């Protein structure tokens, strides 16, 4: 993009050290964008408690203080920011369904690119109105799944020309092959299934555990790794009740040799290492409308076979023979899929090859280029409207 203006792009988002999937997502894209000479990046961090941020963070917005949204909008307007990227998930903004965000965008005098991490096909009236207003104010609306495009048009009245489909990015780390990674952890003779992410009841892990316990009767070498700590919001409200119930279930099913918990917040390299040593990645999630899953995207990026319940994003990612779909809340169905993968090594190989082809297009280097072009489109379209208004 030589000869064009270098854009100053700010991301309104949660950000590390806050433990949140969107925080990690934004850090990944910023790290990739830093390699470009055409875009300068910074963060306006949404905080729910005091945090010690690094140099990426320019401003902090107090999540539960409506006044902070108004003050932040005014600061952005006075700044040299060219484009504001709003990472949107209802739960990371203050007020009912995150409505405080509207106070900011109503005052904003800069072009907005909104990245949607949740697109509900059957929202409440409040949820619909918030997203409808946000998308109306945005120059571009990014969705990470094709299935969301029609929902945005039909449910939220989003102009189709605004919608950009950009895959959820995944890291591209050079690591040893699966067998070598298994050997490092003493898992050479195990069939490894994994699930990672912040643990909460909606993940359906109890069904995954039951499925593995059933599979172990036929294939005792199976090992299910549940990777990650309890979601901080769940831990704050309910402690470790859900995790404790899962650990109790493992004991009751006498599946201690087949289920292992890795109870900590994992680095990206640790996540990719575990995924690459896995034979199967499993998402037994309960919510059928989940439009995006960063954890599933990572597994696709690693070219792993996925066994999943048929939520919206999984159906799209696993189409064309890239994995197997089981029924919701059905451990027997999950176990049947796992057994099929174990017992059909040639089909496993074919599915992994198909998944890898898609995963190669989801690397952060590819995804960051798509975002960069989207920022320029938004900036040009906003500038054009400003000239017409004058």
Automatic annotation (TrEMBL):
InterPro entries: Glyco_trans_1, Glyco_trans_4-like_N. GO terms for molecular function: glycosyltransferase activity. Residues 67-170 form the Glycosyltransferase subfamily 4-like N-terminal domain. Residues 178-356 form the Glycosyl transferase family domain. Keywords: Transferase. This is Glycosyl transferase group 1. It comes from [Clostridium] cellulosi. The lineage of its organism: Bacteria, Bacillati, Bacillota, Clostridia, Eubacteriales.
């Amino acid at each position: 993009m030589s000869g064009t203006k270098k854009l100053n792009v700010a991301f309104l988002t949660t950000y590390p050290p806050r433990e949140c999937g969107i925080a990690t997502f934004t850090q990944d894209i910023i790290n990739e964008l830093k390699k470009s000479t055409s875009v300068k990046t910074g963060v306006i961090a949404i905080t729910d408690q005091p945090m010690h941020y690094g140099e990426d963070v320019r401003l902090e917005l107090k999540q539960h203080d409506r006044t902070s949204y108004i003050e932040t909008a005014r600061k952005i307007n006075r700044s040299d920011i060219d484009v504001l990227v709003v990472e949107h998930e209802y739960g990371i903004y203050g007020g009912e369904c995150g409505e405080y965000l509207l106070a900011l965008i109503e005052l904003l005098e800069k072009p907005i690119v909104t990245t949607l991490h949740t697109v509900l096909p059957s929202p409440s009236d409040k949820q619909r109105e918030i997203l409808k207003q946000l998308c109306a104010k945005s120059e571009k609306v990014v969705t990470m799944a094709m299935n969301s495009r029609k929902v945005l048009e039909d449910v939220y009245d989003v102009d189709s020309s605004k919608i950009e489909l950009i895959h959820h990015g995944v890291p591209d780390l050079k690591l040893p092959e699966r067998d070598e990674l298994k050997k490092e952890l003493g898992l050479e003779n195990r069939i490894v299934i994994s699930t990672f992410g912040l643990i909460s009841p909606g993940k359906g892990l109890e069904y995954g555990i039951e499925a593995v316990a059933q599979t172990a009767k036929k294939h005792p070498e199976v090992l299910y790794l549940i990777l990650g700590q309890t979601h901080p919001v769940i831990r704050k409200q309910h402690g470790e009740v859900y995790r404790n119930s899962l650990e109790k279930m493992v004991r009751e099913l006498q599946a201690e040799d087949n289920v292992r918990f890795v109870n900590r917040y994992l680095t990206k390299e640790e996540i990719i290492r575990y995924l690459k040593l896995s034979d199967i990645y499993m998402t037994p999630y309960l919510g059928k409308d989940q439009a995006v899953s960063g954890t599933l995207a990572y597994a696709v990026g690693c070219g792993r076979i996925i066994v999943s319940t048929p939520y919206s994003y999984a159906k799209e990612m696993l189409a064309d023979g890239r994995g197997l779909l089981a029924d919701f809340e059905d451990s027997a169905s999950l176990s049947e899929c796992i057994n099929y993968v174990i017992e059909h090594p040639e089909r496993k190989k074919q599915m992994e090859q198909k998944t890898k082809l898609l995963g190669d297009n989801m690397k952060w280097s590819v995804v960051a280029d798509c975002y960069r072009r989207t920022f320029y489109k938004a900036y040009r379209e906003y500038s054009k409207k400003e000239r017409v208004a004058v």
